[in-house]
Design goal:
By secondary structure, the chain is mainly α. The chain has 17 helices and no strands. This is Manganese transporter.
C-alpha cells in the first residue's frame, strides 16, 4: 500500500476555513455535531474513492474525462465554464485565505516579527514547490505538513482532556437549535468539488504504467480511507478542543485567527504554540494544493497537458497563487470573488457528482471496474443530500 494521493486530499480540505468552521461548531454546540463530521468524512471517502478509481482505470483526471465524454459541444463548453469558474477562479479566491491563515500561524509563533513578512515568504515557498514540477517533492512536503498538523492538533486535544463520554454522545445525530447552518458548513467544508479533480489527476499520474489495476485500486482505496480518516480525526480534535475551551461561553467571534491566542488561559502557552503551528501547516498545505487542483481542472477542460512538469500547468497554478498572494498581502477584500466562487461551486458539485456516478457505471469507460449495486445504493442518499446542500447554499447567497 502506498500513501500519498489521499494525503494530498487531506492536506487540501484541512485549511483555515475548516479550522474556523470546526472551531465555531465546537464553541457553539459542544460535541453535539460530531455525527455530522463523521458523516461528511464517510461521504468524502466514498466520492474520493470513485474519483481515484476513475484515474486508475482510465488514466484521465476528472476534467479530462468530462471533456472526453461530453459529446454535445454546448454542454461541453457549459461544463468548461462551470469548472473553470468554480475550480479555477474559486481556487484563486480561496488562496488568499490559505496564505493569510498560514501567515497568522507564523505570527502566533513569532509575534515579534513583522506581519507583512510572512505572506510573501509563504507565497514564494509555495511557488518554488509548484514551479519545480517535481511531484515527489511536492507530495513529500505535503505529507510532512499533514503529519505535523496531525501531531499538533491531536497533542492539543490531549492537553485539553475532553470528557470522553460526552464526546461519544456527540456521535448520535441531533440538531440543536440554530445548528442547521453549522451542520451544512461542516459537511460543505469536507465534501468539496476541487478535491475530486485533484485526487483523480494525482492518481492518474501515479498509476501510469501499472499493469495490475485491481491491486492499484485496492491500494488507492486504503490510501483514501486512511488519509481522509486522518483528516477527519484532525477536524474532530479541533471541534473537541474548541468545545472544551469555549462551549457555553458565548464566543461568537471565534475564528482561526484568534483561536490559538484564546486557548492560552485554559491550556497554557504550549497549546497556543501548538495551535499556531497547526494553523501554519493547514494554511500552507492548502496554499499548495489549491493551485494544483485549479491547474488540473483548468488544463483538463481546455485540453492542455495536465502534468505538473507542463509549462501551461505551472503557469495556471502560479496565476492562482499570485492572485491569492496579492489579495492577502494588500489586505484587499475578495468577498465578491469568493461569493461568485461559492455560487458556482454550489451549482457545480451536484452536476459533477451526477456525472461521476454516471461515468462510473459505464461499461465502455470502466469495464469490469464499474460501480457495484452496493456502491450505487450508498451513493444515492449522498447525492440527494448534496443536491439539498447545494440548493441551500445557493439560496443563502442570493
Amino acid at each position: 500500500m502506498k500513501l500519498g494521493p489521499g494525503l494530498l486530499v487531506a492536506a487540501a480540505f484541512i485549511g483555515p476555513g475548516t479550522i474556523t468552521t470546526a472551531s465555531v461548531a465546537g464553541a457553539s454546540f459542544g460535541f453535539a455535531l460530531l455525527w455530522a463530521l463523521v458523516f461528511s468524512v464517510l461521504a468524502t471517502i466514498l466520492l474520493q474513492s470513485l474519483a481515484a478509481r476513475l484515474g486508475v482505470v482510465t488514466g484521465l483526471d476528472l476534467a479530462q474525462a468530462l471533456r472526453a465524454h461530453i459529446e454535445t459541444p454546448v454542454f461541453r463548453w457549459l461544463a468548461a465554464f462551470l469548472v473553470i469558474s468554480a475550480i479555477g477562479i474559486g481556487s484563486a479566491a480561496y488562496e488568499a485565505g490559505n496564505l493569510s491563515g498560514a501567515s497568522l500561524g507564523l505570527q502566533g509563533l513569532f509575534p515579534s516579527a513583522s506581519a507583512q513578512l510572512w505572506t510573501p515568504l509563504i507565497a514564494i515557498i509555495s511557488a518554488a514547490l509548484l514551479y519545480s514540477g517535481k511531484y515527489k517533492l511536492i507530495e513529500g512536503a505535503l505529507i510532512f505538513l499533514v503529519l505535523l498538523m496531525s501531531l499538533v492538533f491531536l497533542a492539543t486535544l490531549v492537553i485539553a482532556s475532553p470528557d470522553l463520554s460526552a464526546m461519544f454522545a456527540g456521535f448520535k445525530p441531533s440538531f440543536p437549535e440554530g445548528s442547521l447552518t453549522t451542520v451544512l458548513a461542516l459537511i460543505g467544508t469536507t465534501i468539496v468539488p476541487y478535491n475530486l479533480f485533484l485526487h483523480s489527476g494525482v492518481v492518474a499520474r501515479a498509476s501510469q504504467g501499472e499493469q495490475d489495476k485491481q491491486q492499484a485500486i485496492r491500494s488507492s482505496n486504503w490510501d483514501t480511507g486512511l488519509s481522509i480518516g486522518l483528516g477527519g480525526l484532525i477536524t474532530l480534535a479541533i471541534v473537541s478542543t474548541a468545545s472544551v475551551a469555549f462551549f457555553g461561553q458565548g464566543n461568537s467571534q471565534l475564528s482561526a485567527a484568534n483561536l490559538a491566542s484564546q486557548l492560552t488561559p485554559l491550556l497554557g502557552d504550549s497549546a497556543h504554540y501548538f495551535f499556531a503551528l497547526g494553523l501554519f501547516a493547514a494554511g500552507l498545505t492548502s496554499a499548495i494544493t489549491a493551485p494544483l487542483a485549479g491547474a488540473y481542472a483548468v488544463c483538463g477542460m481546455l485540453g492542455l497537458q495536465g502534468d505538473t512538469n507542463s509549462p501551461r500547468f505551472k503557469q495556471v497554478a502560479l496565476v492562482i497563487l499570485v492572485f491569492g498572494a496579492v489579495v492577502a498581502s494588500l489586505g484587499l477584500d475578495p468577498v465578491a470573488v469568493i461569493i461568485f466562487a461559492q455560487a458556482t461551486n454550489a451549482l457545480l458539485l451536484p452536476i459533477i457528482c451526477i456525472y461521476l456516478l454516471w461515468l462510473m457505471n459505464q461499461n465502455k469507460v470502466m469495464g469490469r471496474f464499474k460501480n457495484s449495486l452496493l456502491i450505487n445504493v450508498l451513493a444515492m442518499p449522498l447525492l440527494i443530500l448534496i443536491i439539498t446542500l447545494s440548493g441551500y447554499k445557493l439560496l443563502t447567497l442570493i
